[in-house]
């Protein structure tokens, strides 16, 4: 599958940091725009028609135009800040390569097949994960989305036209291939797996207010230091998640006035929490918030918690999932703790499934994310088998 390796070589340098080796492919900025141009070029090389909706989602179509029941595959091209190479682009490149395999087999599709590149899946610029797919299916209104701002205060409504998307009209099925973001396939010694479900997950903003003061002249006992409240809250999140076997992370923090010689006046921090059930997620986040407020009472600070986004558990379509597992043979079926566009489409009533490709490092959202070429090619073959059964049953 030389086409896969050639496409991957083309994408490898785009948006890569010379210092860290990580990727900065934030939506509607230079690196991501270059990848969008690459997507259009790859589609044109295959004679595919590309449609773009008012939010920037792209789909390259192959096969008959008439009739419902279209099948979609693909993923996203954007990255987290200083992210890995495979999260997202592997699914897009593999989709083009799988189409090449179908054509080489002489498959004549009876259903239209699309290759998607959903925009702002990571939420790394405008803070809302799976933003493009949410807008495409109507799970998020444009009236709300257009007011989202990035770290520089740029409004989404000033970046894209917005409106109403018809890109997924007539779609019945979505299959997304993704690098695994963990070590399950490594432990199971399997190159490819099928997704069963996505854990419930969400993001909460913690605003901790205190009193700015001088770092040298203010006695420790006279301070109302929000950093202490935040620090204890971060430790509490770690402890509560470890005790319950769930996930809790404070990965982003904003400090004001952010001076070395000043006690801060305000901390804004974002909690990412994930759990095996909605009940477990509620217990976890409730315990973290309770400990934060107890600590704030002792520190003379205050805490305000805002739920920014929460997604419930997503179970992928059982018939599609089981059919893929049977078609691919003896492959593991496993849940994922990461959110994906496939989860948004499944919640919108579009039968969805996922394929995972082994990540030998088990590390993701990091420059250390990886996948072996042989496993990637196994993923392409698995995706081609899955799509063949859907577009030419």
UniProtKB/TrEMBL annotation:
Q: Identify the keywords attached in UniProt to this record, alphabetized.
A: Hydrolase
InterPro entries from the xrefs?
Amidase_Cbmase, Bact_exopeptidase_dim_dom, Peptidase_M20, Peptidase_M20_dimer
State whether keyword Hydrolase applies: yes
Question: Peptidase M20 dimerisation domain spans which residues?
Answer: 204-298
* Tagged with keyword Ribonucleoprotein: no
Could you tell me the superkingdom of the organism this chain comes from?
A: Bacteria
Q: Which Pfam families match?
A: M20_dimer (PF07687), Peptidase_M20 (PF01546)
Q: What Gene3D superfamilies does this protein's entry cite?
A: 3.30.70.360, Zn peptidases
Membership in a protein family? Belongs to the peptidase M20 family.
Question: What PANTHER family does this protein's entry cite?
Answer: ALLANTOATE AMIDOHYDROLASE, ALLANTOATE DEIMINASE-RELATED
The entry's protein name is: Allantoate amidohydrolase
Organism, as annotated? Nocardioides humi
């Amino acid at each position: 599958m030389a086409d896969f390796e050639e496409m991957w070589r083309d994408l490898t340098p785009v948006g890569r940091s010379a210092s860290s080796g990580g990727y900065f492919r934030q939506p509607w900025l230079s690196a991501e725009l270059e990848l969008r141009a690459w997507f259009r070029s790859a589609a044109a090389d295959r004679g595919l028609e590309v449609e773009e909706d008012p939010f920037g989602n792209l789909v390259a179509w192959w096969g008959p135009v008439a009739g419902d029941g279209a099948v979609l595959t693909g993923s996203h091209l954007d990255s987290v800040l200083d992210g890995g190479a495979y999260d997202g682009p592997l699914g897009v490149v593999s989709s083009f390569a799988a189409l090449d395999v179908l054509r080489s087999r002489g498959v004549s599709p009876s259903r239209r097949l699309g290759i998607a590149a959903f925009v702002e899946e990571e939420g790394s610029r405008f803070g809302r994960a799976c933003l493009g797919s949410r807008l495409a299916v109507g799970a998020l209104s444009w009236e709300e989305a257009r007011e989202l701002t990035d770290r520089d205060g740029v409004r989404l409504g000033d970046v894209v036209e917005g409106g109403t998307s018809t890109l997924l009209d007539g779609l019945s099925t979505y299959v997304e291939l993704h690098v695994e973001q963990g070590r399950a396939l490594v432990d199971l010694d399997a190159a490819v797996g099928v997704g069963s479900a996505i854990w419930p997950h969400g993001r909460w903003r913690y605003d901790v207010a205190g009193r700015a003061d001088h770092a040298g002249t203010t006695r420790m006992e006279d301070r109302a230091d929000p950093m202490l409240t935040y620090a204890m809250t971060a430790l509490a999140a770690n402890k509560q998640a470890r005790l319950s076997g769930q996930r809790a992370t404070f990965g982003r923090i904003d400090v004001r006035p952010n001076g070395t010689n000043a006690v801060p006046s305000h901390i804004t921090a974002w909690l990412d929490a994930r759990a095996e059930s909605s009940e477990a997620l509620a217990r976890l986040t409730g315990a973290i918030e309770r400990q934060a407020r107890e600590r704030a009472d002792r520190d003379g600070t205050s805490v305000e918690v805002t739920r920014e986004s929460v997604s419930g558990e997503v179970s992928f379509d059982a018939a599609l999932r089981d059919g893929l597992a049977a078609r691919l043979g003896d492959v593991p079926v496993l849940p994922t703790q990461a959110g994906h566009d496939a989860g948004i489409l499944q919640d919108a009533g579009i039968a969805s499934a996922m394929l995972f490709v082994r990540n030998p490092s088990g590390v993701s959202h990091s420059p250390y994310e990886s996948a072996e070429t042989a496993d990637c090619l196994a993923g392409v073959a698995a995706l081609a088998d899955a799509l063949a059964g859907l577009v030419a049953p």
